[in-house]
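To: structure subgroup
Subject: Chain for Friday's discussion

All,

I'm putting the inputs and outputs inline so they're searchable in the archive.
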Amino acid sequence: MTYEKAMTRLEQIAAQLENNELNIDQLSKALKEAQELLDFCRNKLYQADADINKMLDAFQHEE
């Protein structure tokens, strides 16, 4: 799964929620999936931030 695919799926779930397209059984499943996707995206963002900080630190130590 990529960050972009996860965000696209989150947008789909949000649209379904806004349009009342989900019955109670689907709602529970969709909310669980959304939480998992949010966790995935958050972890991707934290990892990207850590990688950027490592690169910036390495760059500053080269000077």
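Points worth raising on Friday:
The chain has a mean pLDDT of 94.
The chain has one domain: 3-62.

D.
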